[in-house]
Amino acid sequence: MCHLLTLRRSRFTVQLRDGCGSDHCSTPTCFTCRKRIAGKAPLRRFNTTSARSMATYLASLDNAENNICPGLRSPKAPPAALNSLAFVPNRKDPLREREERAAPTSPARLQSGPPHGASPKKCGGETPPRPPRSRNGSVNGSPAPKEQLPSTTSDFQDQASARGPGFRVIEEPTSKDYRSFTANVFSTVAFKMLEWLTPASIEEMSRRADRFQTSRDRSRTGATKDTDGDSSRSGSPQSGFLQQSPIKSAETKGDGTKPRGSRLRPDATPEREKLLKDEKAVKEDHNSSSASPISRPATQRRNSNAKLRTAPGPKPKRQLSIDPFASDSLVDEAFPAILKSPRPNGSATDRTPKGPKTANPVLTRPISQLSSAGFFDDVSLEKMPPPRTVEFKPKLGRSQVDGAKSSDAGSPDELTVPSQVSSSRSCSNHSVDAGEDSEGEDVRMLPQALSKLSADVVDFICDVVQEDGTAENHMLEPPSVARFHNKSLRQGKPLKRRSRPGPRRTPNLRLEWKIFVEQTLFYVLSDPQLAILSFTERGQLYDSQTLWYCMLRMTRIAPKLVFHSLWMASASLFPPPQTLQALRSPTAKVFPNKEKSLSNLQAGRLISICLHTLIAAAPLVGTDRELYDMSRIRAHGLSLSGSGSVADQPVSLCLQYEDCFTDELAVRLAKRVFSAIITRCYYDEINELNLNNEEKAPDVLTPLFSQLDFLNMDSVYILNFSFPDRALHETRVPILLLDWARTVMLNEWTGSPEIPGAGAFGGALALIDAMYKKRHELLLGDAQFRAEYFAERLDTVQMPVHWLSHSPTRKKMHLLDFPYLFNSSMLVSYFRAINFSRMNRAYEEATSLQEKIEVITHRLELDQHHRSVLSDRLKTPSSKYLSLDIGRESVIQDAFNQLWRREERELLRPLKVHLGATTGEEGFDSGGVQQEFFRMAIAEALNPDYGAFSVDERTRMTWFVPGSMEPEWKFELVGLLVSLAVYNGLTLPVTFPKALYRKLLGEPVTELHHIADGWPDLASGLTTLLEWDEKDGLVEDVFARTYEFSVEVFGQVVTREMKPPPSPSAQTSSPTISPRTFKKALNRTKDEQTKWPQFQPTAWQAACHPSPQENNPDEDTAELVTNANRNAYVSDYIRYLTDVSIRPQYEAFARGFRACLHPKSLRLLNSSILQSIVEGVQEIDISELKRYTRYVGWDSNHRTVRDFWSIVKRYDNDMKRKLLEFVTASDRVPVGGIKNMMFILQRNGSEEEPGGRLPSSYTCYGTLLLPEYRDREMLAERLGMALENARGFGFA
């Protein structure tokens, strides 16, 4: 956290003082935005102290990253606090100085390790603390070993480098106002450390330290060539240069006098004064040769007088960026293999004499990015400069060090590396000096890291770490994972460490193995190219389970390192592709900095690796049920299952899931990956607009879905798993992907239904949307995509109404644009809330108009005649209800007459029906009469005797009659009846196939399962045709089908040869045709080719037009269905059945259906939900009905109530529907189940006589009035009589 605070503070400081330089910046705290808003008005820039104060405050706020300017680049220049640091040599003790002066000047001999008695040097130049030495030279009270004095100046240098860096960092005194509280606070070391420890500062200090060390080495080398006396003077430690410091300290002027106000420090000596002069010379030389790394953006120079201004300086180049993330200096670093080679302790070395220096190969030993710093104790640095090169001269006859041999068993170089895995820093081409006979040291440079991983290598390194017990402490479950695959499909020998007789591995060797493994993981996983290469074989990614297994094992030994490394590698997903970086605008580049980018294929593979890592972080479960239950719990935003209403899972498993999905590094990786997904999608959209780009790049999620296609036989299977493991993995991967996407969405959600289209939230939603479109291939149901957390916290009434006026953009979208996130009951509630809102608005408009009419007529003092005339003229706009007067003998005729040519505003008003008023019925509509009217009207309209609809005898499905003689306006009115029922929240006693509802919602009907419910026999026959194996006979011989569509209408068979639909690709041949003109031409061509013949309604019209059956093609010329065209035959047959043959009738029905419903509200529904809204639920569960029944006048333990339920439970389905219709006026259960229906059992007196009252009901209120009968037999008799003769209304 401290490191993140430091980075944010440095970015805010640059943002406040310098700005981003973008011409369209809108961040209030950015200097560029302030300058643009101020215009020509004077603008005061924050000084260093005020910028530090403001940056510290902004960095400490919650969600501080949201306040950082998107166009801000990471600061490359060191902060101002670094200017006060200076490098000075260490002071030597007199004993070591005398030893150096007494040393002979023989040729330099390089030693490969520290001399005997010297403490080993840590990586990065850091020297471990030396043991306390007593007065007599003993260490920790024991006699000190006699040290071998080095014989050359080079040996002195090696010993000095082994003891420490040879210099120290001091802070130059600066002038400040001691009366200022802010200046004193920010001058403390604690606040300065916030700027000293930034990546830019550490990198700058590393460069200064390297230059300072190089200058000292050069001075020492020159000193050895002089006389001893000159060497003692010029080679002293004080003769090195001070590191340059941009802020000058108290120095002498050119004339030898000190500047005014300067003071001599207490430690000032003649040597110190000389060092200051050398430092000044170095700074002057550096300033004259090179400019500052980063210059402040050019601004107008102003005089002291605000009205007089000097000419503006050169304007900076325009900077544009579409990268949603500011560049991070940690991400832009290279990933070298930079751990020191693990060396066994106490290994013997051979000594060889050294000859004069020649041009020998050198081996650079980089310093680990994971090691400690050499400048400040216990400070973790991300990058340090490489040390000086080491001359490497192995002994004659020794083989090259390649990681295959070692002098000690169990060292990291004793692993048998497969041919495809190489060490990252191989040691080869070593020169050997001839003519040397004396013994030398055997320098063994062991491999620092592996440059590639594989399934075998992952198993090996994980086994090593788990065997040594050096795995990272973490909260993931299980803590460790052993091998559970059967074997590798490549039949290779497993890797293992060589064992030799002797003592067991020491703690230092275990630590070296741990460092080697960590360096390997960091080096490979932080480099996107190496990460992709490691898990790719034969040009494809590993299969999903092998990749998941590798990540599972690595996340159980070093999860933080794995998550952080992949987080760094995923930064390469954001630079735009090369095709976009090549774009140019007339005035500036679209992308100012060309960064190394990945193609969509490479980006997709890296995304798949990262997502499998997140999946591997989840706890291991043994059954599909646990996966589904935990997904439901997480979808509700819960950590525990609670009372078990959502799912019943143990607390321990819930807590393990919570530990995984709240891990900071894992969540950070998930956010970056999801942000990259939506960013790459935007790049694809921009790329499609580029006219020069003719080839469309593959989608970035294609590699992931290719892995998740478990039926893909081309997948590269590496490891062999058992069948139960693979079956469980097929369920695990898509479920956990949805869980991670929901986790990021819940973390990023602000509580508003309007959601961001970009960023982590937009990327997670894009992944869920892509998975929903492929849910059938992924074996996912609609329930797995729900996020109940959102529905529980949104307004059920106002939110869907506001959604109607919302226009989605890339920046802002709405949750209801993705209805699969909500369950069916909530979607129905939103749908009905929209209808109720429109109905209420129409009612209020009519009421307001009626009140205005009354006021006007009262003021004008009109007589009764004129008032009635005015009321008749304004009856249509001022009526509060849509009133229908229907007679029982002519229901459909009265309905058609009164609904014909109604305005939309009339149809949107509340419905009132007067049924049977002409025959003396007292029924007045309070809800039940409406239900009775629609039941009678739909039953008469869909009667097959009229020739408009047909009913299947087996399935009772209703469908249009192809070429019906009924006019289209009747189909439109039937659709209007259905629309009115849905608009008023009523169900209808109809059964349409699901294909109709798919067509009404604009969904295609192309698959066999789309027609299976309406035409089961046909679907079964076509399935047999598709699955037929020609080994048992040719398709044309066995099935003998022609490529035609036939239907029997009015006793006549109409047959037409099926033609394929016109291809839209014809538009590409005529680029001058507009899309709208081409669409009209395409529809006209489509109608001409596939128009179905219609029967004429009258004899005169039939005489003028040929009969439809007259144009039937000849059977001899018809094309047969063969193995080559059977797939096309099935597709065309479905198209002719559900579209071509009934197109005029369906289009008229659809126009009426959409008359009362808002087009956008239908987007909330799918075909199943729309079918349940129209038809209700036909299955009636008496046990559930009993559970939700309310009682008035008695309770459930009363004898009559118990007898009632015992009688009803024995009813068949027909009697159950009659009971439900008798009480609620509908024989269907509404959508959402019986719990959404009102069913009241009320006591209505007592009856002892056999000829007493029958049961009655209030259908408007769902109330059954049941008298208390004498016995059970009488109750059964009277109830059955009432249900069989239920027709008409009393007061309903």
Automatic annotation (TrEMBL):
The entry's keywords: Ligase, Transferase, Ubl conjugation pathway
Record field: transmembrane: none
Positions with biased composition (Basic and acidic residues): 90-102, 204-231, 250-287
Catalyses which reaction(s): S-ubiquitinyl-[E2 ubiquitin-conjugating enzyme]-L-cysteine + [acceptor protein]-L-lysine = [E2 ubiquitin-conjugating enzyme]-L-cysteine + N(6)-ubiquitinyl-[acceptor protein]-L-lysine
GO biological process: protein polyubiquitination
InterPro entries: AZUL, AZUL_sf, E3A/B/C-like, HECT_dom, Hect_E3_ubiquitin_ligase
EC nos: 2.3.2.26
Coiled-coil portions: none
Superkingdom of the source species: Eukaryota
Biased amino acid composition, Polar residues: 149-160, 232-247, 288-307
Catalytic residues, chain numbering: C1260 (glycyl thioester intermediate)
Biased composition (Low complexity): 417-432, 1065-1075
GO MF annotation terms: ligase activity; ubiquitin protein ligase activity
Disordered as annotated region, ranges: 86-171, 199-442, 1056-1076
SUPFAM superfamilies per the UniProt record, alphabetical: Hect, E3 ligase catalytic domain
Domain HECT, first and last residues per copy: 903-1292
PANTHER family for the chain: HECT-TYPE E3 UBIQUITIN TRANSFERASE, UBIQUITIN-PROTEIN LIGASE E3C
Name of protein: HECT-type E3 ubiquitin transferase
Species this chain originates from: Rhypophila decipiens
